[in-house]
Write a structure and sequence with these properties.
The protein has 304 residues and is an all-beta fold. The chain has three domains: 89 residues, Insect antifreeze protein (UDP N-Acetylglucosamine Acyltransferase, domain 1); 110 residues, Head decoration protein D (Virus Head Decoration Protein, Chain: A); 35 residues, no CATH class. Helix content is 0%, strand content 38%. The chain has no helices and 25 strands. The strands form six sheets. It has a seven-stranded mixed sheet, with no helix packed on it. Strands 12-14-13-15-21 form a five-stranded mixed barrel. The protein has a four-stranded parallel sheet with strand order 2-4-6-8, with no helix packed on it. The protein starts with 6 loop residues before the first strand and ends with a strand.
Length: 304
């Protein structure tokens, strides 16, 4: 370890060069960024601040506030060897592989605002009216089905108000540059210090070698002045009377009448109930999972 509070633990041939940095259970690795870590890795270099490399081989991460991993059998540590990264600043996730789901969820869904306040039953066919949704009318084009099985659910806003950050007229995020509030000046041991009685080298003070003029600029999302952090956020999934998860693509369960059989195409009958269509539609029945009970049957369908 070469700087203030830096540590190398259970590691071989490694360096912790950044302040409050750590290399843990690793070999031939370097943590050079301030408050950075390399964990359980080999021949890896963490350069960004407040970031980590974990469970990796020959990976370099230069980004701030990022958690990364990767693998390569040959060469030097490189960003090209990363296979996944999670960014805390924007909430973005990049992966080089495949996402597998251990659940039987089979469709892609998005949250839409209800035209009228009140929960819309799962399995009903849904139509647009402006930017809001309601149960589809007879023979009306539908955009999807109210889903309870979507494996991907967009627009839920589970963390904060959806308008917290400003966007431009195309919906793109607006950024600004500000002085980094977390920056601390670099410090070195005070060479002029003279120990008093009872003091040791461990008591030698650190003195800054940078000033406020050295504080760097960082690029961040521009916050909406109307955002109130004191207001509790309730996600859209917790407000079904206002927002509906609409399955737009994939395998879905649909409320149908008694006319729909496996292989049939499905259209809207009335009030979002599905019925057999003589013409091709985006919805095709695969299996009846609940027989008609006088109100509706439940049909497992493919939505294209």
């Amino acid at each position: 370890a070469s700087l203030e509070h830096a540590q190398v633990n259970a590691s071989q041939g490694s360096l912790a060069e950044g302040r409050r940095s750590q290399v843990n259970a690793s070999s031939d690795s370097i943590a050079s960024g301030e408050r950075s870590q390399v964990n359980a890795s080999t021949i890896s270099t963490q350069n960004g601040r407040n970031s980590q490399i974990t469970s990796s081989m020959r990976v370099a991460n230069n980004d701030d506030y990022a958690l990364s991993g990767g693998y390569s059998l040959t060469g030097d540590a490189s960003t090209a060897n990363m296979t996944w990264t999670i960014w805390s600043t924007l909430g973005n996730v990049y992966i080089a592989g495949i996402v597998h789901s251990g659940t039987p969820f089979g469709d892609y869904g998005e949250y839409f605002e209800n035209l009228k306040k009140g929960e819309i039953d799962v399995g009903l066919l849904i139509a647009l009216e402006g930017a809001k949704v309601r149960p589809a009318k007879k023979d009306e084009d539908f955009i999807g089905v109210v889903s309870g099985t979507a494996g991907i659910r967009l627009g839920d806003t589970p963390f904060c108000w959806q308008g917290r950050y400003l966007v431009d007229e195309w919906g793109r995020k607006v950024f600004e540059e500000i002085k980094d509030p977390d920056w601390e000046p670099k410090k070195v041991p005070d060479e002029k210090w003279k120990p008093k009685k009872g003091q040791t080298e461990a008591d030698r003070p650190m003195i800054p070698i940078e000033t406020e003029e050295d504080r760097p600029l960082i690029r961040v999302q521009k916050e909406n002045p109307d955002y109130d952090p004191k207001r509790k956020q309730v996600s859209r999934s917790e407000r079904p009377e206002e927002w509906t998860l609409v399955g737009l693509l994939g395998q879905v369960y649909v409320r149908c009448d008694d006319t729909v059989k496996p292989g049939d195409f499905v259209k809207s009958k009335a009030k979002g109930i599905g019925t057999k269509s003589e013409e091709k539609t985006r919805l095709r029945a695969m299996k009846v999972t609940k027989e008609y009970d006088g109100n509706y049957s439940i049909v497992y369908c493919l939505l294209l």
